[in-house]
UniProtKB/TrEMBL annotation, chain A:
It is a multi-pass membrane protein. SUPFAM superfamilies: MetI-like (SSF161098). The lineage of its organism: Bacteria, Pseudomonadati, Bacteroidota, Bacteroidia, Marinilabiliales. PROSITE patterns: ABC_TM1. InterPro entries: MetI-like (IPR000515), MetI-like_sf (IPR035906). It comes from the Bacteria. One of its GO terms (cellular component) is plasma membrane. This is Iron(III) transport system permease protein. The keyword ATP-binding does not apply. It comes from Natronoflexus pectinivorans.
UniProtKB/TrEMBL annotation, chain B:
Keywords: Iron, Metal-binding, Signal. This is Iron(III) transport system substrate-binding protein. SUPFAM superfamilies: Periplasmic binding protein-like II. InterPro entries: Ferric-bd (IPR026045). Belongs to the bacterial solute-binding protein 1 family. GO terms for molecular function: metal ion binding. Residues 1-23 form the signal peptide. It holds the Pfam family SBP_bac_6. It comes from the Bacteria. Fe cation binds at residues 33, 220-221. GO terms for cellular component: outer membrane-bounded periplasmic space.
């Protein structure tokens, strides 16, 4: 694509920069990126005395911890995500069809709830430990087996929460691979493992990178879990600067550095991938046919895919159900329904906003590729790695300014008009979750050959018709997958909702968090279960749509 | 179609929020999220007709939001579960004096600001928890005594990120100065049974599991655990004794949940009414019997559980004097290597 463009004359290159699509995309990106730019702007402010103390005494340890955590999670989510995706895409074994859906489920559980639940399952007063202690005299300190409140514990819990990002994207990718590529590998004498490492893995790289980078950004963003587990990360440092040192300036400056770090990571990946393209040029797409496994291998495959489902979903959800039964008399009051409604509406609105913007800028970058366009999208999607509480600060600056202007124009002495409304919240989610929607849409767009667009245009279709009549029908499943991920993410979201919500406004996640943060984990269970349940409905909905689209093959 | 409906609903929601302003209201930013609080707010509305609008979040974030909103902020009241945050709020000019004879009478002077910019409505003692039978309370004495060699590898306490520890440190700084406080923190770090992990409940469970022998926690966690839905947790809590440290010198460190009225409060009169309501017998009883916090109002009788822990002498250094130490607290923790 890039090479081809270099041959064009200057006017076309200029047209790549100045046209309606670019203009609108740029405006939208600017709006989304504005809170981030506010944070960025703080980098150049001079630090106070706390800043001095934090950078010299705390930052080195925080940075090292963060790198260890990221490395551990990256390794584990890749291992779990890719191996399970490969197994369910390539082989037939008992329960495969059920497992391929069950593998997505842990995504419906917020990481901090998974953490609290696992601690509750292993700690001194947990049913399992009590049983083992009383009947078999097992004594392993405060926690069963190993001290879960530690770095390894945090890596395991975060990986169990976030591997579905990798799994989902890798599986979609494998499913869309033409069987002929892999068969070519076999016919050249490669063994299955070698086909996996030499063909499938390199080929699935965009999906893999998109998935792992989502997982890592979630890790960078997480505060609730690492704080409870006693792992001091960069994000803990941000909050420590703010809460313990009372220095929001230092907190925002640190977030600015975090943004630079993420930007460099993303750019490095882009540069490394360079101009390689991953779309299949051949027209003879044939769906994969799963290979039969013998009994032993089938059993091993089953165990492999069952393990993350068991640890990331079945066991914790069973525990939550057990707790919910214990506390049901406290939980289901008259306000529960409004919690559900609020959560559901917010998540839908945010998914709609994120996906519309993602399709718009995704298509613009695809149609008018330029370095500036790509940088613009990178910048607009970086909010995913920034702790929600910090985004809130960046967001309040422009919103309160607008409110002040509005008040001046209308001459009202009254308070605040748009800050602290639904609109603020949905806008905040859009800033925060752009990456989720955009990455999945970009991933399917990369997979769809640009020659389709070119064919459409050469037949006289306008850009708009190319997008709506050609591209969107093709990438439909990717759009839905993106919307689903955003929906679930917003359902689980906490820090932004906490600080930006209107008066008297609660969501399920807030209800769960309030009990959990008061150290009343069992009471948090019913709301957690409903979050998970609504998330599951979203997964089912997706499945139905994918089936209609013919993306699920039933051999 | 769906999109239209969603838009309509959200517009309606925005308008509803806008209209609600005309009735008598009081707007509360609260860093506490107990259901008992919300029930009391509803009770207040029933008694006075004043609607309580509530946003609950982390108190530091609420202070920041208040600061950014400036003079147009809708908030009338800020509630935090820690005196340190209110001291900071006053420093930043976010509060104004609470003009109430009643409140001044009900709250002892060391639990409120010298100019009544904020006042405590519940008290929370940070004590030493020990296993009855395993440890004889006569071995215990003060926060300082836990640094002695006999406690090596036996002390459980959570991380220095925690507000309760930070305000405790401020009180130690007030008592011993920077050098002395750092030595104290070093002594505790040396005697820790493990790196600081988990919350206050986890420290208590750590004792039951034999990982340590004493824990520094707030008293009401014992109350919450005694009333837990988990039988084993009730069992653990019933084995624990509560020891009030420093009875022979300055007294046990007591923090507060406090309330302040914002500098630009649009409904000042209602804010004062709500403050008085929270200090009156009815609300004070609820805090004591449901959250197991100590009532700040001396006229209110303690429930049985609180009585069973016994009377104690609390640090009478006025909490507002901790202001000058609160900023140093974290630095001292870091210097001493308290994670």
């Amino acid at each position: 694509m890039i090479k081809k463009l270099k041959g064009f004359s200057t006017p076309i290159r200029i047209r790549n920069y100045f046209n309606g699509w670019m203009g609108i995309s740029l405006l939208v990106c600017l709006a989304v990126a504005f809170p981030l730019m506010v944070i960025f702007g703080h980098l150049f402010k001079t630090g106070d005395s706390s800043w001095q103390h934090i950078t010299t005494n705390l930052l080195p340890a925080y940075t090292i911890n963060t790198l260890i955590l990221m490395g551990g999670v990256a390794l584990l989510v890749t291992l779990i995500g890719v191996s399970t995706a490969w197994l369910v895409s390539m082989y037939k074994f008992p329960g495969r069809r059920v497992f391929q859906w069950l593998l997505v489920l842990p995504i419906a559980i917020p990481a901090y709830i998974l953490g609290f639940t696992w601690v509750g399952m292993l700690d001194y007063t947990s049913p399992a430990y009590v049983f083992l202690r009383n009947n078999f005299g097992v004594e392993t300190g405060q926690f069963l087996f190993f001290n879960i409140l530690s770095m390894p514990g945090a890596i395991i819990i975060l990986s169990l929460s976030f591997y579905p990002y990798v799994y989902l994207l890798a599986r979609t990718w494998f499913m869309q691979q033409s069987a002929s590529i892999l068969e070519a590998g076999y016919s050249l004498g490669h063994k299955p493992l070698s086909v996996f490492f030499r063909i499938a893995l390199p080929l699935s790289r965009p999906a893999l990178v998109a998935g792992v980078s989502l997982a890592l950004m979630e890790v960078l963003n997480d505060y609730g879990l690492v704080n409870y587990f006693g792992v001091d990360t960069f994000t803990t440092g941000i909050f420590s600067a703010w809460f313990a040192f009372g220095s929001p300036v230092s907190a925002i400056k640190l977030s600015g550095y975090l943004m630079i770090f993420v930007l460099i990571l993303l750019m490095a990946e882009r540069m490394d991938r360079g101009n390689r393209r991953y779309d299949s040029v051949g027209s003879q797409f044939r769906p994969l046919r799963q290979k039969e496994l013998n009994r032993l291998n089938g059993f091993l495959a089953m165990i492999t895919v069952m393990l993350p489902i068991l640890l990331g979903f079945v066991l914790p959800v069973s525990m939550l159900i057990y707790w919910s039964i214990q506390t049901s008399h406290l939980a289901f009051d008259h306000r529960f329904l409004s919690l559900l409604k609020n959560s559901f509406l917010l998540a839908s609105l945010a998914a709609l906003a994120v996906i519309s913007i993602s399709v718009l800028i995704g298509f613009t970058v695809r149609t008018f590729p330029s370095r500036m366009a790509r940088f613009m999208t990178r910048f607009a999607t970086i909010g995913y790695a920034i702790p929600g509480a910090i985004i809130a600060v960046g967001l309040l600056v422009p919103f309160i300014w607008i409110d002040n202007q509005l008040a001046r124009i209308t001459g009202s002495a009254g308070g605040i008009i748009i800050t602290g409304t639904w609109f603020t919240l949905v806008f905040a989610y859009t800033v925060r979750f752009m990456a989720v929607g955009y990455n999945s849409i970009e991933s399917v767009m990369t997979k769809t050959s640009v020659s389709l667009d070119e064919a459409s245009r050469s037949l006289g279709m306008s850009n708009r018709n190319t997008l709506f009549k050609v591209l969107i029908p093709i990438i439909h499943p990717g759009i839905l997958a993106g919307a689903l991920l955003v929906f679930i993410d917003v359902l689980k979201e906490l820090p932004l909702t906490l600080i930006l919500r209107p008066f008297n406004f609660d969501t399920l996640a807030i209800r769960a968090f309030e009990f959990a943060s008061d150290e009343r984990v069992p009471e948090a269970a019913p709301a957690s279960l409903v979050i998970i349940f609504v998330g599951l409905m979203a997964v089912l909905l997706l499945r139905k749509t994918l089936k209609k689209q013919g993306y699920v093959h039933h051999p | 179609m769906l999109l239209k409906r969603i838009l309509a609903v959200s517009v309606a929601a925005v308008l509803m929020v806008g209209c609600a302003r005309h009735a008598e209201v009081v707007n509360v930013y609260s860093g506490r999220h107990y259901q008992a609080d919300e029930r009391l707010f509803r009770e207040f509305t029933e008694q006075t007709g004043i609607r309580v609008n509530l946003v609950k979040a982390n108190s530091d974030q609420l202070l920041n939001r208040l600061e950014m909103e400036g003079e147009r902020s809708p908030a009338d009241i800020i509630i935090t579960a820690d005196a340190g945050r209110l001291i900071i709020a006053k420093e930043k000019g976010l509060l104004q004096s609470i003009d109430s004879e009643k409140a001044t009478q009900l709250v002892p002077s060391h639990f409120r600001d010298s100019e009544n910019f904020w006042l405590g409505f519940t008290k929370r003692a940070r004590v030493i928890i020990y296993p009855k039978g395993r440890i004889n309370p006569s071995e215990l004495d003060s926060y300082e005594s836990l640094t002695g060699d006999q406690w090596n590898g036996r002390v459980l306490v959570r991380s220095s990120q925690n507000h309760y520890n930070q305000t405790l440190m401020a009180s130690v700084l007030a008592a011993h100065g920077e050098k002395g406080a750092e030595n104290w923190a070093r002594g505790i770090v040396n005697n820790m049974a493990r790196n600081p992990i988990g919350n206050d409940r986890d420290q208590i469970k750590g004792i039951a599991a034999g990982e340590g022998d004493v824990a520094i926690t707030n008293t009401y966690y014992i109350g919450l655990m005694l009333n837990s839905v988990n039988r084993e947790e009730r069992e653990v809590a019933s084995q624990m004794g509560v020891f009030f440290p420093n009875q022979n010198d300055r007294g046990t460190h007591v923090n507060i949940s406090g309330i302040g009225i914002t500098a630009n409060s649009p409904n000042y009169k209602n804010a004062v009414l709500l403050t008085e309501f929270l200090l009156a017998d009815q609300a004070q009883n609820v805090f004591a019997s449901e959250n197991y916090e100590y009532p700040v109002n001396p006229n209110v009788e303690w429930p049985e559980l609180l009585k069973s822990w016994g009377e104690f002498k609390s640090d009478t250094l006025p909490l507002h004097n901790l202001g000058e130490f609160i900023h140093q607290a974290m630095i001292t923790f870091n210097n001493a290597g308290w994670e």
